[in-house]
Amino acid sequence: MAAAVPVWLQAGWWGLVAGGALVVGAAVAYAVRVPQRLIAAIMAFGSGVLISALSFDLMDEAYRGGGFEATAAGFVGGAVVYTAVSWLLSRRGARHRKRAGHAPHARQPSESDHPGSGTAIALGALLDGIPESIVIGLSLLAGGAVSRVAVAAIFLSNIPEGLASAAGMKAAGRRAGYIFGVWGGITLVSGLSAVAGYVLFRGASAGVVAFTTATAAGAILAMIADTMIPEAFATAHDFTGLITVVGFLCAFLLSKLGG
Predict the structure, then answer these.
(1) Which of 166, 159, 158, 160 minimizes the C-alpha distance to 31?
(2) Which of 96, 167, 171, 203 has the most CB within a 10 Å radius?
(3) What is the SS3 string spanning the chain?
C-alpha cells in the first residue's frame, strides 16, 4: 500500500498549482495580443472571485476559530502592512504592475522610463502572491485536507493577474526571460509559502491561526482595492462592477457546492 503523502508536501503542491496560474496567464499574454478590454474583464472577474473567497472562506474560518478580536486585528494589520510595502514599491515604479496597456499613458514603465522599476514590479507581484499562498497552507491545519474553494479562487484570480502583468511587461519592452523568470519564480515561492503556512503554524493556537488567516485576508482585500479593481476599471469602465459581481457569485456558488 502506497505511503500517504506528507501534509506539508500537499501544501507545497497546491501552492504550486494555484501559483502556476500566473505562468499560464503570462504565457497567453506573451503568445497573443489579448484585447485590453478582455484583460480588464477577466481581472474584474478575478477580483469578485477573491472577494467572495476571503469573505465566506477565510474571514468566516478565522472568526469561528479565534473570535472577533484576533480576526479584526489580523485583518486590519494585514491591510496596513500590505499598503505600506506596496506604497514603497509604487514609489520605485511598481504602481501599475498589473497594467496591460500599450499606449504610453497606459502601460508599465520600462527600465529607461524608471530605472529599477523591473525589480520593483517583480517584488510587487511577489507581495501580491505570498498572502494567498500562506492561506493554502493554513487551510490544511484543520484536518489535513486543503480548502479547494481557496485553491480554486486563487487559481482563477491568478490567471488575469499573470495575463495583465505579463502583457504590460511585454508592452514595456521587457524580454521573455524576464517575464517568465518573474512568474516562474513567484510560482516557486507560492509553493514554499504554502509549505510555510502549514509548517510554521502547525502547532499554533487557534487564535494565532485565526490572526494569521485574517492577516492574509486583509492583505488580499487591500491588493484587490489598490491594484486589481482600479486597473480593471481603467479599461472596462461601467462594466467592471457587473463583472466583479459575476465573479463573486461564481465563487460563492463554488463555496456552497464545496461545503
Answers:
(1) 166
(2) 167
(3) CCCCCCHHHHHHHHHHHHHHHHHHHHHHHHHCCCCHHHHHHHHHHHHHHHHHHHHHHHHHHHHHHHHHHHHHHHHHHHHHHHHHHHHHHHHHHHCCCCCCCCCHHHCCCCCCCCCCHHHHHHHHHHHHHHHHHHHHHHHCCCCCCCCHHHHHHHHHHHHHHHHHHHHHHHHCCCCHHHHHHHHHHHHHHHHHHHHHHHHCCCCCCHHHHHHHHHHHHHHHHHHHHHHHHHHHHHHHHHHHHHHHHHHHHHHHHHHHHHC
Q: Give the pLDDT confidence of 187-225 residue by residue, as tens digits.
A: 999 999 999 999 999 888 989 999 999 998 998 899 888
Q: What would the pLDDT profile of 135-166 be if each residue is shown by its tens digit? A: 888 888 866 667 777 888 888 878 877 887 77
Task: Report the amino acid identity of residue 122.
Answer: A
Q: Which residue has the cell 501552492?
A: 15
State the residue for C-alpha cell 504592475.
Answer: 97
Q: How many CB atoms lie within 10 A of CB 126?
A: 16
The neighbour count for residue 13, using CB atoms within 10 Å, is 16
